[in-house]
Amino acid sequence: MDLRSSDPLVVAGPRSEDALPETAAAAVKIVIVGGFGVGKTTLVRSVSEIRPLTTEETMTQAGVGVDDTAGVERKTATTVAMDFGRISINRELVLYLFGTPGQQRFWFLWNGLFEGALGAVVLVDTRRLEVSFDVIGRLEERGVPFVVAINTFPEAPPHPVEELRAALDLPEHVPIVHCDARKRDSSRDVLLTLMRYLHSLALSTEAS
Amino acid sequence: MSESGQGWEEGSPERLYVITGGRSGGSETSTLDLVTLVRARTGPPPGMPPEQAAIVRLCSSPLSVAEISAYLNLPVSVVTVLLTDLLAEKRVEARSPIPPANLPDVALIEAVMHGLEKL
Ligand SMILES: Nc1nc2c(ncn2[C@@H]2O[C@H](COP(=O)(O)OP(=O)(O)O)[C@@H](O)[C@H]2O)c(=O)[nH]1
Ligand SMILES: [Mg+2]
């Protein structure tokens, strides 16, 4: 029996106002990483020019010890969703923002994600710092430059930045900022903090 | 969204296996990144498999691999396999991402900074 359908696959693509111009020649990406509910999707949504989209990856693709030639029926299709948004920087350059969960069991997603990424924003909820420790350690290991953004939830007790720096064991040069991920300007400023940090890193490397 | 009548779930391993002809996409070193921009060179020829044809139609303007994956509701790994074929057949062209590096160049960083400042 032929499993393939020859009917055209009807796919709703981007709305015409969301189409990139013909001049779009290259794209870069920034990764927003943090625990569940920390505000990743909210941040992406607040600055994105398109409604955030979701892409999925299957756990089995990560090679979690699954024999490729074994029957597919034995594979479980555990999928992990990643939200992303887009900002057109100019006529040629497009910036994509990917939100990804920080828990260790999702690190298999990181290979394709961080390869070629400009850098990362570690989004932190001060009530749950544990996830951030692992994430920060992992980014340092991979050599991914990052900044830390504290998403200020009203229920969270206020913490001075220097207290958080000590708690997260962050070196002096890594920027820490507070933000409200629901606000476009605030989210934009987080991204600018990362870019200015990358700029200073690039200048100091050029100089040396 | 759902292809009614096919009797399998969107993301089921069976469906994905059939779409890619059983290839995983993991072994070939792919030059495709999540943010590689893809643009169709031609319309879909008659007889092209539905997923490939859908990609070609989606890419009538430049679109990232991640967006193709999202609109098609297929994992990136599967989309990558399909795109590799479409690239080989010259149905689409890929506009590569800025070369990956831990240290992107200053001009690129400044361009992104200026773009964000204007938001
Ligand atoms: N008060 C407040 N709530 C927020 C903020 N950011 C996100 N939220 C809320 O926190 C919840 C989880 O946010 P979400 O973006 O889905 O988190 P994600 O799991 O990291 O993607 C949602 O109900 C948001 O509305 C913020 O800055 N302030
Ligand atoms: Mg989310």
From TrEMBL, chain A:
Q: Give the top-rank taxon of the lineage listed in the UniProt record for this protein.
A: Bacteria
Q: Which keywords label this protein?
A: GTP-binding, Hydrolase, Nucleotide-binding, Receptor
SUPFAM superfamilies linked? P-loop containing nucleoside triphosphate hydrolases
Q: Name one GO molecular function term.
A: GTP binding
- InterPro entries hit by this protein: Gliding_Motility_GTPase, Gpn, P-loop_NTPase
Q: Which residues form a coiled coil?
A: none
**Does the record bear Hydrolase in its keywords?**
yes
In Pfam terms, one family for this protein is ATP_bind_1
Family assignment from sequence similarity: Belongs to the GPN-loop GTPase family.
Q: Protein name, please?
A: Signal recognition particle receptor subunit beta, a GTPase
- Source organism of this protein record: Actinacidiphila glaucinigra
Automatic annotation (TrEMBL), chain B:
InterPro entries on file: DUF742 (IPR007995)
**Segments of this protein annotated with the region Disordered:** 1-31
The identity of this protein, by name, is DUF742 domain-containing protein
Species of origin reads: Actinacidiphila glaucinigra
